Amino acid sequence: MNWLNSQAFTLLGQRIIWSDMIGNILGLITLALGWRRSLLTWPVQFLSGLILFIAFYGHLAGSAGKQVVVMVVALYGWWQWNRNKGQAADGHIAPRFATWRERGAMVAAAAVGTVAVALLFKAYPSLSWDPWPDAYIFVGTVVAMYAQARGMTEFWIAWLLVDLVGVPLNFANGYAFSGFVYVIYGALVLWGMRDWWLRSRQASQPVLEGAPA
């Protein structure tokens, strides 16, 4: 599987690595499926994590370990969506706004988790090249995926916050394809957030007595 870490081609003077390209293409597909609230979101996310795990295993233990967590959360998301499918009129899950308690819990978990993971990365330098931003992206990704698994519209905001750090970090670490793809990510996130936001608002509005369902 060494070919996953070899150069696929060069784009605008940047080396494009096979694992980076394949993982991000699958990430785009995952995001698009998440926008449509398709159950296939999670198997594709799992496959993306598996490919990146294979690419990192043996020389980037920290990155490989992070993909294991991503795959576990993907399994949780599949279980949650499979259990709650059919709630919406179109047969998919019904998006909702998180409660203030849930929002506070996720912010606290992100803050504490980032500090804890960053300290772990600093204690074991082989796990990460950039401990703090790497920890922020990793923990933010897990929080976003958890919120998505629970059907919370706020998961789109979490993805945007992750992208703000992820784009420059990917370019700095030589993963140019990730940086280019994040431009498309941003557009998909904004469109997906709008769709989920409107659906959540509609679901939260009370139905007047005698009005058609």
UniProtKB/TrEMBL annotation:
Topology relative to the membrane: Multi-pass membrane protein
Keywords carried by this UniProt record: Cell membrane, Membrane, Transmembrane, Transmembrane helix, Transport
TM annotation in the entry: 16-34, 46-79, 105-124, 136-162, 174-193
Localization of this protein: Cell membrane
InterPro entries attached to this UniProt entry: NMN_transpt_PnuC
Family membership noted in the UniProt record: Belongs to the nicotinamide ribonucleoside (NR) uptake permease (TC 4.B.1) family.
The protein, known as: Nicotinamide mononucleotide transporter family protein
Organism: Streptomyces longisporus
Source taxonomy: Bacteria, Bacillati, Actinomycetota, Actinomycetes, Kitasatosporales
